[in-house]
UniProtKB/TrEMBL annotation:
A Pfam family annotated for this UniProt entry: HTH_18
Identification of the protein by name: Helix-turn-helix protein
Organism: Shimia abyssi
Transmembrane segments: none
Domain HTH araC/xylS-type stretches: 215-315
Entry-linked SMART domains: HTH_ARAC (SM00342)
Keywords: DNA-binding, Transcription, Transcription regulation
GO molecular function, one term: DNA-binding transcription factor activity
Domain of life of the organism encoding this protein: Bacteria
Keyword Disulfide bond: no
Amino acid sequence: MDHIKNSPNLPGSEPPVVMMLPEPNDINSFSPWEIDFRQIEAGPMETKVTVRAGSILTLLNISMSRAVHQTGVSPKGLLTFGIIRRNEVQVWQGQDTSASELLSFGSSDPFDGVSATRFCGTTVSIREHDIEHLADALGLNIPESLRTSATPAIYVHHKRLAAIRQLSEQLTDGHDQPMTENVQEEIVANLLLVANSYDQHEDKSTPLIRSRTVSKTTELMLALLGENVPISKICKEVGVSWRTLDRSFLEKFGIGPKKYYHRLRLNRVRSDLIHKANHYNISDIANRWGFWHLGQFAQDYHNMFGELPSTTMRISGE
């Protein structure tokens, strides 16, 4: 299993870039987008843009205080998707999309839409080569609805959309959430799962296959607890698709494989804090189990155990 080990998955050091634009079309001066925003609602316009680029994808969050008609062409060489809330975009490519939460821009495709007052949305742009490579590693399809703006709105309300939106907002709101390769992969994988949807592409695995999948995966996770290996590499090693792996873990534990792996590593940290508090500091113990961003680690630890790592260490040392 040495061939799938990683070096520490350190977060990028670049924080989000936040800009207040005098007028929305100023976005064309620093981004690969070709956009023409036309304000169609009277009143003062405020436009805020936040950009955060990672090794796999780029997030661009834009908020505007007035309704606009927007036309343009999506960036070449990228597949781009829009994460929105219901009723924030009224019309997209000539269709009523007020009930949609996921839009497709395609690659180098024209688009035309009308957004509502106080619009706020995030685009996720991924290089075509990267999304194809990741889809292959996860055993997922890239449906045509993601490759073109001809099918502009994907009408599927999936709990994963809320997770994608929350994670994207955390990444663009500040530097506390590290933009690691694992986090970026999670966004792309969830987008693929949403677009495919379980109803359209049913998992064909048997209960026996799913049981064996869980056993093989948990064994692998135990062997690689300090590595924080991406789930795509675990899928490849175990020989199953993300869909089968996800279903297997949800059936047995009620949580997905990524969350299980994360919580397993947090458990190991807590054990060390309780039993080795006098010999190591918190950062050393966190690093040992693959946690390199201490701010995010402390938050995750508190969410899991209801106390900070320092509290656990202090109580164990008394």
